[in-house]
Amino acid sequence: MTRPPFALLVTGAPGAGKSTVGAELARRLRAALIDLDPATEALTQVVAGLLTVDDLDDPRLANATRAARYSTIEALAVESLRVGTDVVLVAPFTAERRDPAAWSALRGRLESAGARVVLVWLRITPAEITRRVAQRGAQRDLAKGDPGWIGRLDLTAPVVPHLVADASLQPEQAAESVLAQLDSPQTQRNLC
């Protein structure tokens, strides 16, 4: 008997390594990688232009696009899951990790496509985030030069069932940790 496809949802703070660890998990699982930023960037840029917003973290842009962006990656995941393909979704999933009802709704939609759904939290310290954001120097991080930025981040672990990976590890090690937890009978009981 074949196992149901996985839907691994990788979440964490900016700079935690969501995209990098997510890509490593997708590579090892031979899964479809669906990363919120690249999957929705072109349309987000169009909306930013219409709103005359330069900062991609601007609340006006986030409010105008969040539902559509998440709906897009969810739809892509459902299509892959329906044909039996594992998926790794990479996004902050802030509402879903903070609100059990939001998590339950998303999990239910992915499970209805046949998936075994697992949330993966990349745990990271403020010092490591600061170092990584400075090191990557991405355009989207320019607004994060504000010294108070790090204090406004929500670094609280999800309130819903999840796996934890240490984001200070190398991406390969973090992915290996997640995969080992997925195979653990204890983990399987705790995530149900």
TrEMBL record:
Listed InterPro entries: P-loop_NTPase
Pfam families noted in UniProt: AAA_33
Signal peptide: none
SUPFAM superfamilies the record matches: P-loop containing nucleoside triphosphate hydrolases (SSF52540)
Domain of life of the organism encoding this protein: Bacteria
Name of the protein: ATP-binding protein
Organism: Nostocoides australiense Ben110
